[in-house]
Amino acid sequence: MKKEEKIVGELTAEEIGKLKKQHKIEAVIGIPFKGRIAYIKEPKRNELDYALTQAQEGPLKMVDAILETCWVGGDETLKEDHKFIASMMGKTDEILGISSLTLKNL
Predict the structure, then answer these.
(1) What are the residue boundaries of the structural domains of the chain, listed by start?
(2) Residue 30 φ then ψ, to 5°
(3) CA 30, CA 58: separation in Å to the nearest integer?
(4) For the segment 10-19, what is each residue's pLDDT rounded down to a tens digit?
(5) Could you give the 3-state DSSP secondary structure of residue 11?
(6) What is the pTM for the complete model shown?
């Protein structure tokens, strides 16, 4: 039988429920990375605005802004891990809830 590996920063379902209640949010997004995990909440409009403003200074600044404003739990060392931050850049559209739109000429 394979031993289950512990993920640093992992929360129980009960702890996630407490986070949802504490932050008055419906969902928590778990972002696992190399044996560790970060938990963020979906950005609200003002947090999205801040992240997109920071993006003008560079994509890493946008990820930093998301972590700064939306972090709710997990392994704190991920906030300073440049490989984690760079990996998050590829998921920012998904994290920010940005979807593709289809334009239609009428």
Answers:
(1) 28-96
(2) -95, 135
(3) 24
(4) 999 999 999 9
(5) coil
(6) 0.85
Amino acid at 31: I
- The sheet carrying 71-74 orders its strands as 28-33, 36-41, 71-74
Angle, in degrees to the nearest 10, between helices 59-70 and 82-89: 100
CA dist 70 and 28 (Å) reads 10
Q: How many CB atoms lie within 10 A of CB 16?
A: 17
pLDDT, residue 4, reads 67
Region 15-40: what's the mean pLDDT? 94
Contact 5, 34 (CB under 8 A): no
**Mind giving me the DSSP string for 20-74?**
HHHHT-S-EEEEEETTEEEEEEPPPHHHHHHHHHHHTT-HHHHHHHHHHHHEEEE
Nearest CA to 90 among 69, 63, 67, 66?
Answer: 63
Q: What is the pLDDT of residue 105?
A: 87
